[in-house]
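Worked example (supplementary).
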Amino acid sequence: MPASLLDVDRDRIATAARRVMARCDELARVSATAGAIERVYLSPEHARVNRLAAEWMREIGMTTRQDAAGNQLGRLGDPDRPALMIGSHLDTVPDAGRFDGIVGVLMALEVVRLLRGSGGHEDGAGSPLPFALEVIAFSDEEGTRFGKALLGSSAVAGTWDDAWWALADADGTTLREAFLEFGLDPGRIREAARHPDELVGYLEAHIEQGPELDERGESLAVVSSIASARRFQLVVEGEARHAGGTPYDRRRDALLGASEAALAVERICRSEHHIVGTVGQLEAYPGAVNIVPGEAHLSLDLRGEFDGERDRVWRRIEREFDDIMGRRGLRWQSREIHNAPAVYCAPLLQDVMRAGIRAATPNGPADPAVIFSRAGHDGMAIGAVADVGMLFLRNPDGISHHPDESVAGGDVARGIQALSEAVLLLAAERG
Ligand code: HGY
Ligand code: MN
Ligand code: MN
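After joint prediction of all chains, the assembly is encoded as:
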């Protein structure tokens, strides 16, 4: 039986898991759209979930603050000590599930509640843990509103780029205008940045957003690394013409060029190892039923386990696009809107996560699963300022970024225990 440092009975852990599931439902009701879940950066819904998270942080004795980028933070422990940061994000994609990001923030709160009560922080001062605990609810991991992902965590990592202020949402509101409307001061954004000396590390629990744990019949996994990602907006230019009178050999149909490009992305990425490419958006202009599309706009989301491999495949895709558009008499151009290098989870944090899983799943495999995350996470940004460790929870059927996204309460309970054990092991390691 793997050693367990967490002296908490299973009923308390089960109660914690039930609270997480109930709060996931409560947060799911904070949405911009009726009947679906959508919560984007700097929206009224973002403000409402930050207030709820702050209330739950204060409930367990944490001091709270919203930082200069709209991230919600809670802290417990000696103000002069470095902090172990645990968290995830509360923003969502459109028509989202109720667990992506959200379950990790709520599990972090339960870990603090358990550690605070069982030999963890009592009053904050003189706590037996050699570090403070911080819970962070990142404000924009998805990039849904402005296209650039990881805005909240980039501010915390000190990697904010002032060029982002000009990014605009679908209504033409710039990031700068949205900051001001939300009550934030763009001039103070760098106050959100944390120094490496302030942080012991960053831990995040997240649903896998893939089928591996479900197929293996296992509850939890250690994450080895987070895929590197690049996102592009592409424009294909042809010539709008009459849909009836224009013979095929006179057409320069931008939509067909874009469609062939999307199929080429799938073909190329399927032929590669640990590379995924997705065209999630495709629009034809002028978009009339009786006009050959003269222009097409499409997105490309390209990810890989290694930056160099991902970039090599992008060059391969560019060459293929040149061939396709050349053959069809079309022109094309790309604008990169997001670029995040791969982040490799710190060996020590992988080790404590592995030991935490063993303690939480005594009937599980002696060697818990280790998974490379094809999904992006805030750890990709935070890796610039702290060591990153991640725990995956089984995600039935692997469906995510979809209302059918799910996670079992029992796996949440095991995840809370594993994360708590990992924190205690890290504390023991740091003496
Ligand atoms: O896109 C992603 O991989 C993450 O869910 N934002
Ligand atoms: Mn997501
Ligand atoms: Mn996520």
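Two points are worth noting when inspecting this output. The CA atoms of residues 235 and 333 lie 5 Å apart. The longest helix spans residues 307-327.
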